[in-house]
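Posting this for the archive.
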Amino acid sequence: QVQLVESGGGLVQPGGSLRLSCAASGIMFRIYAMGWYRQATGKQRELVAVITSGGTTNYADSVKGRFTISRDNAKNTVYLQMNSLKPVDTAVYYCNIASTNYWGQGTQVTVSS
């Protein structure tokens, strides 16, 4: 069956960096666009970044210039490099197979001093 497993979250100080990973199984990974979403406490889930099968990327305005989404089709993995983190980036981060209802379990990112 389809499975998405996120990792790499944690506690980081403002200005710090984290790299999230999402390992996919049960799908032909290379043909799918993949997305990273986040949900802060009390807020709706929002799109952070998306990468197409061809490697085209798009970002939410709030993370442009700070976050980078990438993929390694040989490893069936999508990444989210997060730099210059701010407290407002605190949320549970989820990966998603675009246009499907397949989601990972989420990984908590907390930005705090």
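The radius of gyration is 13 Å. The mean pLDDT is 96.
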